[in-house]
Design brief:
4 helices; mainly alpha; about 60% helix; single chain
Length: about 80
Amino acid sequence: MNDRIEQAIKSHQKSTFRSKFKLSNKDRQYIQDKGIEAIGQHAIDFIKNRIAPEYPKNDGKQTPICQECNSAPFLYRLLDC
């Protein structure tokens, strides 16, 4: 894990955009208080539960349509045919 972190830091230092981001003293203190392991676990939990759930609710499913709304007479009335 530490090698991956070191590689990420070196990579970010080379990037002009990413090298502009710095940890504040408050952030550094938070890391010291909580520990890097706890922060890493919080990040994993956040991604799993909030950003990318394994089985997202209603994944690719449309709201069901009622039978009447799906029938030809209803559509003709709707379109005034």
